[in-house]
Amino acid sequence: MYIPAAFSQPDKHALFDLVERHAFGLLLSSAGGMTGSHVPFLLDRARGDSGTLLCHLAAANPQATLVEGQEVLCIFQGAHGYISPTWYAKKPAVPTWNYQAVHAYGTARTTREPAVLRALVERLTAGYEGPAGWKLADEPESFAAGLLRGIVGIEIAVTRLEGKFKLSQNRPSADVDGAIAHLRNLGDEGNLALADAMVAATSPAPSRHA
């Protein structure tokens, strides 16, 4: 990913936060031809220096049979949106798109071990269902066993983690303030999230000695 210095986000924990907030990512692999699958990921922050990503694919998905031992790329998209030059105080200026993105690289390992797959499905659903929601254990065992036979688990120990937070850090403060104000005025969820991200990215870091 092309990352100008102004937009680089080297803080591993900030990248982990984005991955967890926007866990529906894109799994890309090149074995057998460039292939991508859109899947929800789990991030295990404690496994490895750059974390470990977990997901699963349908067993019928050709990518599931091709990724074992291959380097893959997982892409996560955070807040993003259009920025008009009419929102800037400084001219001339051009339109642009602000966004947050994380690229995670690593070698994929696959499993069809039922116990591992069951734990993966239970962790994934618990995160979205909550304690009172749907549980695989509530379904008939024959149904659960059939479900697990139909998926392939994938584990990716991340070896390279890249973050690009392009949030107007290269613009004068008046331009940033103008863009944030217009995004808030537009008012939908995506624009408000982008405005919040821009505030966080362009505000002075708090003093450690305060």
- Provide the spatial order of strands within the biggest beta sheet: 2-1-5-6-7-4-3
Envelope shape: elongated
Total number of domains: 1
- Pattern of helices and strands: HEEEEEEHHEHH
Q: Report on the biggest sheet.
A: 7 strands, antiparallel
Through-space gap between termini: 36 Å
CATH superfamily, please?
Electron Transport, Fmn-binding Protein, Chain A
Mean pLDDT: 95
User: So how many helices?
Assistant: 5
| Portion of residues within helices | 25-40%
The CATH topology is Pnp Oxidase, Chain A
Q: What is the CATH class name?
A: Mainly Beta
Judged by helices, strands and strand pairing, the structural class is: alpha+beta
Architecture (CATH level 2) name: Roll
Q: What proportion of the residues form beta strands (DSSP E)?
A: 25-35%
Instruction: Give the low-pLDDT segments.
Output: none
SS elements, strand count: 7
Rg calc = 20 Å
Task: Walk me through the structure.
The chain is α+β, with helices and mostly antiparallel strands. It has one domain: Pnp Oxidase, Chain A (Roll), CATH 2.30.110. The chain is built from 5 helices and 7 strands, in the order αββββββααβαα. It has helices at about 10-20, 115-130, 140-150, 175-185, 190-200; strands spanning about 25-30, 35-40, 40-45, 50-60, 70-85, 95-110, 150-165.
Compact summary:
This protein is α+β, with helices and mostly antiparallel strands and 210 residues long. It has helices at 12-21, 114-129, 141-149, 173-186, 189-202; strands spanning 24-29, 35-40, 42-44, 52-58, 71-83, 96-111, 151-166.
